[in-house]
Design brief:
With 493 residues, this protein is an alpha/beta fold. The protein has helices at residues 2-23, 59-73, 118-123, 129-145, 158-173, 180-206, 239-242, 246-259, 263-277, 283-307, 320-327, 350-361, 368-376, 383-402, 416-429, 442-455, 464-473, 479-482, and strands at residues 26-29, 33-37, 41-46, 81-89, 94-95, 102-110, 210-212, 222-225, 228-231, 243-245, 339-343, 363-367, 406-410, 433-437, 485-487. The protein has a 6-stranded antiparallel beta sheet with strand order 1-2-3-6-4-5, sandwiched between helices. Strands 12-13-11-14-15 form a 5-stranded parallel beta sheet, with helices on both faces. Strands 7-10 form a two-stranded antiparallel sheet.
Length: 493
Amino acid sequence: MASDRQAQGDEQASFIDVLRQRLRATVVETHISWVLLDGTHAWKIKKPLKLAFLDASDLDTRRQWCEAEVNLNRRLAPDLYLGVVPIYGSRFLPNLVGQGPVIDYMVQMRQFPADALLSHRIGEGQIDPAWLDDWASDLARFHAEAPCAPAGSSWGSEACIAAAMQGVLDGLAAHASVPVAALQGLRAWAADQAVTLAPLWRARQHQGRVVEAHGDLHLDNVLLWQGRVTAFDCIEFDPALRWIDALSDAAFFTMDLAAHDRGDLAWRFLNAYLDASGDHAGLPVLRHQLVYRALIRALVARLRAQQTHADRAQPSGPDYLGLALRWAGLTAASTAPQLAITHGVSGSGKTVAAGHWSVRHEAIRLRSDVERQRLFGSGAYAPEQTQRVYERLWFLADQALAAGWSVVMDATFLARAQRQRFHMLAQAHRVPFQILHCEAPDAVLQQRIRQRQALGRDASEADLAVLAHQQGTAEPLTPQELRDTLWAPPHQP
C-alpha cells in the first residue's frame, strides 16, 4: 500500500514538473489544486483527490468542475477566467498540443500579482477601508441577483447545514492538534444551535435567502482587480457548498478579516453589507456561520500542514479554532452584548463614533439614514417619517440584542422620549446602556454637511435647513442621562 502511494506521488510530481517546464512556470500548491504561473497566465489543475468533502479522482468529473469553475467565477470576475484547456499524453509525459489521449484539464486564467490578494495586503496594512464599503455593496447586489433555491430544497435546509457542521467537526477530530475538550464543547454548542435555528433556516429559505453564492470567501480568494475588490475561485465541486444562505458568504469574509487581527475592517465590512442588503433578519444565524467558517479554515490549515509535512501540532497562521471557540461563547474572551446610542446633530461625528464603538464591541451598527432611505427613499424628514424610522431601528435593535449581539445606533436621538425608549430596551434585555455624545462648532458642522453633499456618497441627506431644525428642537441630556454618557472625541472634518 505504501509503495502504491509512493508510486502515485512520483507520477504526480513528474506530471506537474513536466508541465512546469513546458509552460516555463512556477508552481503554487493548495490543498486541492496545483496552480502554474507563467507570468501572463495562471493554469489551475485539480488534484485527483478523494477527500471527505470532495471526490476529484475521476477525469470526467474534473473536466466538469473545470468548466463549472470558469462559468461560475465569471459572475464576479469575468475578465479573469479565459477557459478550459485539455492536457494530452500521459501523466509522465503530458503535453498541450493535442497528441495522445486527454489525461486532464486546466483552467486558464489571467495571472495577477500576488500582492493583489487581500491575504497579502492585510499583512502589509494595504487595505483601504473604503474598498470594503464598495465590496460590501457589490456582494449584496450579487446575492440579490443570484438564483434562489426553491422552498423545500435540500440546499440551505437545516439538515444540510447540520450535516456540514458535523462534517467539519468530524474532520477536525482526526487531528491531534485539536483539544478534545474544545471539540466536545463545539459539538454540544452545534447540537444546541441545530435545534434553536432550525425554524430560522427554513424561514430564510422560504424568503429567498438561500442563493447560488460564492461559498469560499476567505482572503486568499479575494483580490484588488482593476481598482475594485472582487472574488474568484468559488466552490464549483459541490452545489451544497455553493447554494447557501447569502449571509454565510458575508460571514466568511468577515471572519477571515477578524482572524487576521483586523476587527476594524471586519465589522466595517459586515455593517456595510447589512446596510446594503438590509438582511438584519439574518443576525440570529450570523454567529453560527461565523463559527462554521472559522472551523472550515481551521480544518484547511491542518490539511495543508499534513500535505506539506509541516508541524502538525500547531498549524501556522491565524488561530481559526480559537476564534471559533470565542464566538461560540466557549472561552473567557467571549463578550456579553450591550447597547449604545449616539446623540448629536447632523455633522457632529456620530457615524465615526458609532463605527469606533462597533469595532471595540463587535457590534451591529444601525443607521437611521440608511433605514430612512430603505423605508421612504430620498428626502424623508417629516416628523411622521422620522417616527417610523425610529420604530424600525427599535425593532432591528431588539432582534439583534435577542440574538446576542451588541448594537450601536447611529441616529441623532435629539428627542428625550426616543432616548428613554432605547434605554428601556437595554433594560428589557438586561444589557449595559451607553450614550455617545457628539458635538462640533457650528462652522465645522456646516462645513461637514456641505462637503458630504458635494461628495454624494453618504446615506445622510441632511442639509443646512435640517441642521437648523435639529438645533432648534433638540432636547438636552438630563442629569440622569449624563451618567450614561460618553463624550466622543472630536475628529477632523
